[in-house]
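Methods — Computational structure assignment.
A single polypeptide chain was analysed. Its primary sequence is given first, followed by the predicted tertiary structure written as structure tokens.
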Amino acid sequence: MIHKLAELTEKAKQKPQRRIAVAAAEDESVLKSLKAAMQDGLVSPILIGHKSEIEKLAELVDFDLSQVEIIHNDNGAHESAKIAVSVIKKGGADILMKGLVSTGDLNGLRKAAILSHVAFFESPYYHKLLCVTDAAMNIAPDLETKVHILNNAVEACHKLGITVPKVTVAAAVETVNPKMEATVHAAQLKEMNINKQLQGCLVDGPFAVDIAVDKEAATHKGIFSEVAGDSDIILVPDIEAGNIFYKALNFLGGAVCAAVIMGAAVPIVLTSRSDLEISKMLSIVLAAAMD
């Protein structure tokens, strides 16, 4: 069980150095995070984009590119994404990182039915890492899409050694209300887990977030569940709930996170400009730590 994001670095160090292809690498924040990950010997980057622009930005952040491969492309970000995907498909890299390019341009690596965002949070108020999904990719997922989002998150947990992740399907209340789609989906997903249609995890819900992370709150509300107060994954109802929860944890809750996109042939590192620098670097570490 991984309790701290720093443990990801140690896990990644036990693996061979990973090659990371960066699509449209003309991005200062991306170069900063790569520099930090390289200092720990975790990754070897392949930077794809306009070479002189990359070199100018690297100089600004004091990033020595003498040992870094650069594939020059001056035909725009879309072409850089195509080159990065090609590098991955040919076995030239183990991780894909998004620079100044649309996420949709990276779909050539799709392995699962959908791509989804998986974020692991270390909070001073929780006893282990907490995975939140999907806060960045799927806007208003229906039941079928939530099945795929859940499976992607479970796969991410398995890759980190969390063998049977406990999944909360989050909603505003703990009772099923036909007028609240999130509660209906939660009951259906729980039933699918009971019937072995969703495997490798333990699913419960609908639970409000307090029930998901606080055993005392669950007991006070008369809810007794292996998942309550000990969740590994919180599956949010939609992108708005996920985005609000994600940013509240980071900016008000004192949490630090690492995130990747799952559902592709390799992990995809996607960072937001508002993410803390440590979170950007840890997202690379997370991808490198995955089996």
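Note: The chain has a mean pLDDT of 92.
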